[in-house]
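note to self — DONT lose this again. spent like an hour looking for the file last time. sequence + predicted structure for the chain T wanted, 190 res
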Amino acid sequence: MKYHIKNKNDRLVYKNSTFSKIVSFIFLLFFSWGSIDALIRGDSLSTLLIPIILILIALIGVLFVDRWVIDKEKLTLSYQFGVYPFLSKKQYLANELKKVEITHFVKGSFDENAEYKRKGRAYRAQVRFSIILKNDEKFDVEVIDEKKSGGTCEQAAFLFSTTLGLPFTKDRERDLDLDVGLRDIHKFRN
């Protein structure tokens, strides 16, 4: 799931994209309309078991919340996760945080110096955006393919560190040997 950052005057919000909520809402409407139509035609509820399960999954997708909020005035970091109204909320003061960290790794490999290989979904370059507390407890904010991130994960981590006044560490720069297709080259030429 891709995250988006919104830098407002009083706060910084890093949350899951609204596109996924819109897609879930469209599925919710589609399956609800079909189920109501089937009930009006006289079908029994037992024949609508799978559409009802899909309606519940789409409803969870619409109500799902995964959000990090930095209050710029109070210098607090709040985390909300769960399905509305059953949200898990945590709040940290800036002086409880140690640093913001970006690490790169290769999916499917335990070797830290593993090379990126093109073998389907395995062995892809990944980026991990983490926040580390003073008691060395580590929270992973986002783990995403390096190519899908396109630098937005690193940008969000840097904004977190500058807003909260924390040190920012990065284990290395982005890979330069990522797959570049004709579509990517065409974007840069225009």
